[in-house]
Amino acid sequence: MRSGTTWLTNLLLEHPKVRLGSNERKELHFLTRALGHGWTNELRDRYFRLFDGRGCPGEFTPAYLRCIWTAPIAATVIRPTTPVIVLLRDPILRFESEMRFAQKKGNIPPIEQSQRLAHWSRTAGSSAQWSGMYASQLEAWAAHIPPQQLHVIQYERAVEEPQATADRLWEAMGLDSVPLERVDERSGTSAAGYGWDWSLVPDLQAALETLYAPEVERLERRWGIDRELWPHFRQA
To answer: How far apart are CA 88 and CA 132, in angstroms?
Structure first.
């Protein structure tokens, strides 16, 4: 969530053989909704029917990663050749983006109420805090999905090298490269430049750095992320 998934999805869809499911929706939330009433063969068949037909259809629901109970369900529908794409962004910048997005939707009090904003970021913002715990979330998924199927992409690298990133993922789908044409298109879900500067909330950034530092170290060791691409976690 808030790591550029709409932008990356649009890039991948530039390939003539890549498409969304039959309902043309990027985010289905199908597997998480199944948690409320149980995963059945009927639901499994309904899910598969969304991806019948030509080419390489798929979905990109960011909530799946942070909902660890989704992983065992996903394991029942993901084929051995299906790439599972995980897009990660500097977790503090991702947190601030989620705060701006919530503010844009009217879920946060007006910016002049700074004390309430600070309180919101530390309490009601706990879901946003968990969303940046990438290493822990990936461990839960790797327990059910073969790690070689998990393609961990850093958003910052994808922005630097969009063609190489798309080529890598298309290759994982068994597709040849095609030249990208719309790499600079801004996502309609972007909250860049909106609302409160969350880095100004007292001690919030320091607390998030402490929270995420062990996660970043684990990501670097196991998943090969380049911490130098994340401004808050570059080594001195």
So the answer is: 9
Q: Is the pTM of this model over 0.85?
A: yes
As given in the structure block, the two tokens for residue 220 are 């670097």
- The CATH number of domain 5-233 is 3.40.50.300: yes
Predicted confidence pLDDT, tens digits, the chain (236 residues)? 888 999 999 999 999 999 999 999 999 999 998 888 889 999 999 999 999 878 899 999 999 999 989 999 999 999 888 999 999 999 999 998 888 877 777 666 655 555 666 666 666 678 889 999 999 999 999 999 998 999 999 999 999 999 999 999 999 999 999 999 988 876 666 656 666 676 767 788 899 999 999 999 999 999 999 999 999 999 86
Which of 80, 117, 139 has its CA nearest to residue 197?
117
What is the 3-state secondary structure of 59-95? CCCCHHHHCCCHHHHHCCCCCCCCCEEEEECCHHHHH
Over 133-164, what HEC string results? CHHHHHHHHHCCCCHHHEEEEEHHHHHHCHHH
